[in-house]
């Protein structure tokens, strides 16, 4: 009897994983009709992140892990799809061998990964950390740490770990296109699903704000006056998301240039040179071509400090708009008893 298929989407971060996962959750019933499970086991934030925590030795019993997924699989006759961008934190074969052994008598395992130009991914990653975990580091000062910390960005080395365990033939490596609207269906085609008439399309999960919006928000939120605003009774929590939305509307109304990246010219050149040999190896190994990305240098370096293009008058008016909008929003929020 032929084994079932287990497709594991491994991300990495900032390649549309949230959109894919939300789409998989939205279409669980349609997937089951097609003979596929997207389990709610080892499951949090729309993906099987508990599995990766377990593989890294940090099992959360409340969420579940590898053994729970094996038990789920044995009780089903379907193929299975798993997804977690946190697989990008795995850079050795040992946990992947454990994963393979656990499913050895049930599935043939296929790995799905998306690659994005590192310069774009790093900028997007900094934005996410600034927005959701209140990172206050200047982007260009953060880059050296990020290059050292995010080992998966050396794609040839990261993918070689999966190839060592699962074999090159079982790796499906795709180039991520941030402008596409059918990330979910692209992934499902890899799983040999072609009829999407019963599937619902999933909107993109994250809103994209410009580098200038983020740099202004970072500077405003790290200023001592921001703490005063947070403590004021007539203002809300001054959430980064709200500040970004207000700033973005203001920049649009002022017709300021939001196309520049966060990179200094020197840092952008440094990042490109850092990853060039790794991308060349990845291109030859998995795409049989010389260049990994068709248009790898889409970002423009900033011309000096991004915020210098605002006049003092514009900065004052922006602060006024921010306070006014926050006051209005705070008045609309239900009071906390």
Layout of secondary structure:
Blueprint: E1 4-9, H1 17-26, H2 28-33, E2 36-37, H3 49-55, H4 66-74, E3 79-83, H5 93-102, E4 107-115, H6 118-132, H7 139-149, H8 155-166, E5 171-175, H9 183-190, H10 211-222, H11 224-231, H12 240-254, H13 265-286, H14 312-332
Parallel strand pairs: 1-3, 1-4, 2-3, 4-5
Helix pairs in contact: 5-8, 10-12, 12-14
Question: Can you walk through the features of this model?
Answer:
The protein is an alpha/beta fold and 337 residues long. Among the domains are: 4-117 and 151-190, Rossmann fold; 211-258 and 305-332, no CATH class. The protein contains 14 helices and 5 strands.
Largest sheet geometry: 5 strands, parallel
Quote the distance from N terminus to C terminus.
62 Å
Radius of gyration: 22 Å
- The CATH architecture assignment of one domain turns out to be 3-Layer(aba) Sandwich
Q: Fraction of residues in helices?
A: 40-55%
Instruction: Give the neighbour order of strands across the main sheet.
Output: 2-3-1-4-5
- Secondary structure: number of strands: 5
- Outline: globular
**CATH topology category name of one domain:** Rossmann fold
- Can you identify the CATH class of one domain? Alpha Beta
The SS-based structural class is: alpha/beta
What percentage of amino acids are in beta strands?
5-15%
Short summary:
The chain is α/β, with parallel strands linked by helices.
